[in-house]
Give the backbone structure.
Amino acid sequence: MKKLLLGILIGSFGISNTNAQLTLNGHFYGEDALKFYTSNNSGSAKVQGMGGAFTALGGDMSNAFLNPAGLGYYNKSEFSFSPVFVNQTTNSNYLGENNTLSSSGLKLGQLGAIFSSNGVGTRKKRSAWGITYNTLANFNNSFTYSGSNKRSSLTDYYAEKATQRGVSSTALNEEFNTQTGQTQTSTAMYYQAFLIDPIDGGGYRASELSIPVAQNGRVSESGALSQINVSYGANFDDRTYVGASLGIQNLNYAQLTDHTENFPNGEIFNSFRNSDDLYVKGSGINLSVGAIFKVSNNVNIGANLTSPTAMKVNETFQSTVTINQKPNTFTTDYPTISTVPNDFTYRITSPLKANVGAAVFLPNKIGVVNIETEYIGYSRMNVKDKQDQRWSSDQKQGIQNQFKDVINLKAGAELRFGIARVRGGVNYLGDPIRVSNDFNTGNTLVGSLGAGVKTAKFYGDVSYSRSKTSAAYTPYTLSNTADYSSVGYNKNQGIVAISLGTYF
């Protein structure tokens, strides 16, 4: 059974095209795949301070997933960790009303150890292997919305769904368990809560018809996509560096949605509240291979290829509605009704990723400049249910229709002043959405700054990066597009990363 998702939460690039709905339950799982695998500026504070441009460079723990060939630069073993502080402010607009919500949190960005050893023979100068943990994506995001709706209610959505099902009121009663207060479907939940009524001759309508409807809601997302890497890199002749890395990914994501409606002129209801809880967990593996070539004493060229991640995903979804009726209208033993938790297992294949970069070392070892391009094959992602080939085919076709492959550009620089380091970077992220829309900001630009110190035994780095994205959230849809609205919101996010490491 597919999840009965009320809202269509659009990924960080703002997909607001509701034509992407490919299931009877109105949810396109390609949006989830895009959300989980949208490119981010991650890694150590050093790498983040340089805009993530590190494919042609080595000697950093982030090489474990950026380009394992860079581990061949290590001539000492290392332990380090990187806490990350995230602050964001979200401004939303719904039905002409604006809301602002700010949040912040501290997360673990990176942790691990690299073990270096001398080479064997005349060509293999050094080698190193490492085990590292990295947070590849942070899903923390919250926003609120409110507005006075003069055209529709969420109850209209469920009345339409019940009508489309062609189900009788007797069948909706049979879908209700009086002992647990739970229903098998969300339409039965709204029927048992007296929020929709049958119509003579067939179909359903909302029971409370008064307008305006004061609507307000909150969407809270949390979780992360993390990866443990077991990596190896080798140095040949101090000219050629090669490496490989096995990535073990872990996905944890939660979306908690509350939608409340108040009826100032209500005849049956004062208000009701709808809550949707979605929990997603997954695990998968990928493989990265890379190389760095020192074409001259001052120029490196690097390349890395990361295979698609094959991830098995398990999700649980549940809806709850709580009513507040007018006095002397009706009586009920169930002011709060929930659907039975809905479990669904499917598979995601992430996009293929390839990076090519060049690093130029400045004279007298005063610094380095690195420029690279990154290919991400978003249109080649896949979402699959082994038990439903038709559904799987629809999801794949939707991904190909909605998303496109992108080329991201990254540039970073580091200047050295004795033991001190100063860094800067920029990350130009291509827009993976094939069709433009009102909420889609197109390409995204992420700027970053950083600084650090490095001694023979210790190093410390700090970076700050900032980005702005736009997105859209649709609380519900109706057959007449003029009768419902979407929430448009802008998210301003600042990230402070700190890396502390020691050599041994």
